[in-house]
Amino acid sequence: SRSIRLAVIPGDGIGQEVVAQGLKVLTAVLPQDVKLETKEYDLGAKRWHATGDTLPDAELAALKQHDAILLGAIGDPSVPSGVLERNLLLKLRFAFDHYVNLRPSKLFPNTATPLAGRPEIDFIVVREGTEGPYTGNGGSLRTGTPAEVATEVSVNTAYGVERVVRDAYERANARPRKKLTLVHKNNVLVYAGHLWKNIFDRVGQEYPEVTTDYLHVDAATIFFVTQPERFDVIVTDNLFGDILTDLAAAVTGGIGLAASGNINPTGEFPSMFEPVHGSAPDIAGTGKADPTATVLSVSLLLRHLGFEAQAVRIEEAVAADLTERGDAVRSTDEIGDALAARVAD
Ligand code: IPM
Ligand code: MN
């Protein structure tokens, strides 16, 4: 019989609350014969305060043994900015070679969005996850003086760009509209821009059925708001993808609904699924957090592990729940319970 060995990192702030709901829905949707084994890892702000640890090697090795990771949120105002982000979240993405950061955007019914009533919005952003300005290459000269100079180098390798571009073509080719848009800024960032565009064009020759488009990132932000229906699959670098996916979430129903998967497509390492939102310390513990983004991340997780029917079931439950939810304000728990009841039906 089948089994899922899942690592769970609730993390900080609302991470704890939303992950509990994600697990509730996961348990409810899985067929009886699938054995779910979860192991919780205590990582995040509390652990750092207690021990100074962010992600010790022993735990990284233990995490590697799982089929997938479900993560809530990382980051807390009591920890200096960047410590947990870099030494825990980004360390996981780099160590497990999550080169495809998959972020779907769908306009669900009844969501508070400036674009309500617009034509269907249903696109995915394939954000590169292991390179760009996220590699920590750079430095500072004459730090703290009026003559300070800081550099932050964006690393783009042909190997790294080609594998993510290829993944994006595969995804576009498998969708009905078969359209892939490269977003970059090759009028200014000429070296990285040309690398991306050349590889995008070359790999595209292998996918004659995929329609391609190129947009500068600034122009793309306009179209996200004025014409989001023009997008099907978008491929872009790590930093542009970070910014664009927050914008995408804001225009398609809010950050409370945005799911993501940090995918290692080769299967060498476990992929990691997490809501796009952060730890929201301002509402932590109040029961106000919307667990839907985490529940939708569980859907991505199931799809990745081959449980397509269960993944669809969750998406349908979310759509139905949002339709019925209307303007009613419900707690984290109530939303989790409602979704679990729907998928179990
Ligand atoms: C995200 C977050 C992270 C990122 C931060 C917390 C390092 O904003 O997952 O989008 O920039 O990738
Ligand atoms: Mn972000």
Automatic annotation (TrEMBL):
Pathway(s) it belongs to: Amino-acid biosynthesis; L-leucine biosynthesis; L-leucine from 3-methyl-2-oxobutanoate: step 3/4
Pfam families in the record: Iso_dh (PF00180)
Gene3D superfamilies assigned to the protein according to its UniProt record, in alphabetical order: Isopropylmalate Dehydrogenase
Chain residues that bind substrate: R93, R103, R127, D218
Subcellular location per the Swiss-Prot or TrEMBL entry: Cytoplasm
Keywords: Amino-acid biosynthesis, Branched-chain amino acid biosynthesis, Cytoplasm, Leucine biosynthesis, Magnesium, Manganese, Metal-binding, NAD, Oxidoreductase
Domain Isopropylmalate dehydrogenase-like residue range list: 5-339
Catalytic activity, as annotated: (2R,3S)-3-isopropylmalate + NAD(+) = 4-methyl-2-oxopentanoate + CO2 + NADH
Cofactor(s) the record lists: Mn(2+); Mg(2+)
GO MF annotations in UniProt: 3-isopropylmalate dehydrogenase activity
Residues at the site labelled Important for catalysis: Y134, K185
Binding site residues for Mg(2+): D218, D242, D246
Family in the record: Belongs to the isocitrate and isopropylmalate dehydrogenases family. LeuB type 2 subfamily.
NCBIfam families, sorted: PRK03437.1
UniProt function note: Catalyzes the oxidation of 3-carboxy-2-hydroxy-4-methylpentanoate (3-isopropylmalate) to 3-carboxy-4-methyl-2-oxopentanoate. The product decarboxylates to 4-methyl-2 oxopentanoate.
UniProt-recorded name of the protein: 3-isopropylmalate dehydrogenase
